[in-house]
Amino acid sequence: MLKSKKRVTMLLDKGIGLRSQRDLLDTAAPYITQVKIGWGIGNVLPEEILKEKIALYREVGIIVSPGGTALEKAILEDKIDQFSLWLRESGFDAVEVSNGVVKLDEDEKCDLIRDFNKKGFIVLSEVGSKDPLRDHSISIKDRVEATRAELDAGSQKVIVEAREGGKGIGFFDKSGSVISHKISEFLECVDWRDIIFEAPLKNQQVFFIKKIGVDVNLGNIAHDEILSLETLRRGLRGDTLKISG
Amino acid sequence: MLKSKKRVTMLLDKGIGLRSQRDLLDTAAPYITQVKIGWGIGNVLPEEILKEKIALYREVGIIVSPGGTALEKAILEDKIDQFSLWLRESGFDAVEVSNGVVKLDEDEKCDLIRDFNKKGFIVLSEVGSKDPLRDHSISIKDRVEATRAELDAGSQKVIVEAREGGKGIGFFDKSGSVISHKISEFLECVDWRDIIFEAPLKNQQVFFIKKIGVDVNLGNIAHDEILSLETLRRGLRGDTLKISG
Amino acid sequence: MLKSKKRVTMLLDKGIGLRSQRDLLDTAAPYITQVKIGWGIGNVLPEEILKEKIALYREVGIIVSPGGTALEKAILEDKIDQFSLWLRESGFDAVEVSNGVVKLDEDEKCDLIRDFNKKGFIVLSEVGSKDPLRDHSISIKDRVEATRAELDAGSQKVIVEAREGGKGIGFFDKSGSVISHKISEFLECVDWRDIIFEAPLKNQQVFFIKKIGVDVNLGNIAHDEILSLETLRRGLRGDTLKISG
Q: Which of A5, B3, B146, C134 gives 20 to 30 Å between its CA and that of B244?
């Protein structure tokens, strides 16, 4: 179960081709826990490529979900049933429930989490807005409450939004630097094992490894940064050389 | 014909290998209208790889030109005939006429456009200097006049220079942000359908899609951003989720 | 011998898969002198992949070393003999001796250079700290003395540290701009042919080519920038169009 796992590394797959994906699996499969096929990338990939992509990951035990935006699009268009069918036909075993753009109050979000659980999917949820202004206005208290409610509803991990770029969102400022005191406050109220921190930039990964430990759950890792992150976790890169992992 | 096309997506190919190119075509071929093999990359690739690269694109109906710099080098060295021969032997069906570095007045540039048209090539032209200072000194009036003259001479689309990096050039400031009022002024005098905006950065792509529409012609898209751009056009990414394309 | 070579291009391989590596060699093998498998990436790659990776490079005459951090880890753990064995079993023909993180005085560093020479490896050494504050406190005089001592001890080239990112380290400021006067001072006292400048960013590569010449030795070049660097050296990109190489 994803719920009990530490050291989760979540890859952000932006639609890399199958040769490139095989390269990635040959070199780094054991270091990838879960893959998010970013936002609506799964909807523009040719169907047969998408199916083979998901199958290749799942063969080696990697969990696969589409991006939260794919679900949000379905919510906007009132097509959740079709979306669920598409998940199943494509081979996804996980789904991410987010409200980064659409308005969805916590009760509705938790209902969705419960619904997808009942349908047999591994559910992750994401807290945060894709709009930097709105995102920075979410208080720590609200983040904590949403996190707890979503875990109670059956989300296996709660993801802290940072987007692909990692700047100006979540616990990061415009330049991508970490706003450390916000994370400290947040971690006083939640268990880090329940959280996946999106941390696409190296300075962010280093921060979390030093602050929380080598087993911290990290997400939105680019496919060509998976090995680098593993070296950071193991103290095999200058930034963490004196830390053993 | 490229001239009448909307929603042109021009890929910047920096010399990706053939396996990577096949991955790209498997996942994204329908979303690529035209490829520019950047600057003089075509001159340093092994000849047989270049020919196969061009052939692979053309087989699926994608137009292929070398970068404008390749022609500018030939102009500097007074080797335009050899350059034309190389174009043909390599399999290019298009050519880009630019004066980003070499001095070439508008009459000479339009003569070149006419010459390459006569030789049977699809011609695109590019307006702008690769030197940020010189580029920012080109007035909107001059840009408009150059654009009109080059379209009249037979250029199928006029490209607005932004380089690979997208910063400090064309309608972008040093940080890559869009200088919106310049674009508004420019678009009062030209038809957006005749223009390809080089827009390598996501914020730039989002700007143009919101300002002009999902069919705006965009260029200098990296090979690993083609799918992402398509999701932006279709409202499948947070930035454009509420826009349908 | 690497010692007498000019125009060294040192690739930073972050663990690209074998398909991607074959793509690279098909398109750019003649432009790569030497490969550094970054920091401890060699330690997290599956053993058989690492061996095949090294063999593929060496088959076409490219020199291969692990990153300096791999050796520094071995120094910290007092496992230099095991490290040497691993080098040999994996197929490396070169080693990089650095003290970017561990404390190692110049005498000890030069002893290590001599030791690896005796063991039959091509030895490169690196001057600089991975910590920006410490790195910027190294005087030019100290850099020059270290460089001379290490060349005397048998280092074939001395690398100026700039890390993968190229910012805030060595002769670069926080934004990656070149601190030109420091390089001028340094080059008054050492022969540029003995130095490899790590220069991952294009503006840095352009600077060195214009300042020192098209044959300058450059390092930490990403795999997808090898062709671009070659075009810069040959005056086939806007930035260096009027320079012939």
A: B3
The DSSP result for A132-179, as a single string, is: HHHHHTS-HHHHHHHHHHHHHHT-S-EEE--TTT-SSSTTB-TTS-B-
Q: Which residue of B has its CA nearest to C23?
A: B17
Indicate the number of domains in chain C.
1
Contact C69 A22 (CB under 8 A): no
Contact A241 C69 (CB under 8 A): yes
Give B-chain residues touching A72 at CB under 8 angstroms. Answer: 238, 241
Residues of B with Cβ-Cβ distance to A16 under 8 angstroms: 23, 27, 224
The Cα B8–Cα B28 span in angstroms is 14
Tell me which residue in B27, B224, B231 faces A39 most closely, judged by beta carbons: B231
Q: Which domain holds residue B191?
A: 9-240
DSSP state of B224: G
Strand ranges in B110-173 using DSSP code E only, listed in sequence order: 122-127, 157-160
CA distance A21 to B22: 13
**B195-225 pLDDT per residue, tens:** 999 999 999 999 999 999 999 999 999 999 9
CB pair distance less than 8 Å for C228 and B19: no
pLDDT in tens, B46-72: 999 999 999 999 999 999 999 999 999
Distances (CA, A) of A37 to A44, A53, A204, B44, B153: 11, 10, 21, 35, 45
Calculate how close chain B gets to A127, using CA atoms only, in Å.
14
Q: Does B174 touch chain A (CB under 8 A)?
A: no
CATH number at residue C175: 3.20.20.70
pLDDT in tens, B126-175: 999 988 888 888 999 999 999 999 999 999 999 999 999 999 998 999 99
Residue holding tokens 């906007």?
Answer: A76
Q: Is any Cβ of chain C less than 8 angstroms from the Cβ of A234?
A: yes
Residue among B27, B231, B235 minimizing CB distance to A49: B27
Q: Does some domain include residue C3? A: no
The answer to whether residue A211 is domain-embedded is: yes
Looking at the complex, does the CB of residue C19 fall below 8 Å from at least one CB of chain B?
yes
Q: Say whether residue B202 is in contact with chain A using an 8 A CB cutoff.
A: yes
With cut-offs at 50, 70 and 90, classify the pLDDT of residue B242: confident
CA atoms within 13 A of residue B14's CA, in its CB half-sphere: 21
Nearest residue on chain B to C232, alpha-carbon basis: B40
Q: Which two three-digit tokens encode residue A129?
A: 């807005």
Q: Name every chain C residue with its beta carbon within 8 A of the beta carbon of A242.
A: 76, 101
First to last CA, chain A: 22
B227 in C contact zone (CB under 8 Å): no
Q: Which residue of B has its CA nearest to A39?
A: B237
Over the stretch C107-141, which tens digit does the pLDDT of each residue have? 999 999 999 999 999 999 999 998 888 888 899 99
pLDDT tens-digit profile of C46-80?
999 999 999 999 999 999 999 999 999 999 999 99
Q: Min CA distance, B167 vs chain C (Å)? A: 13
Query: Does a structural domain hold residue B186?
Result: yes
Assess B168–C contact: CB distance below 8 Å, yes or no: no
| Residue C234 within a domain | yes
Please give the mean pLDDT across all residues of chain B: 95
In this prediction, residue C244 carries a pLDDT of: 52
Tell me which residues of chain C have a pLDDT lower than 70.
243-245
**In terms of Cα–Cα distance, which of B16, C41, B45, B230 is closest to A19?**
B16
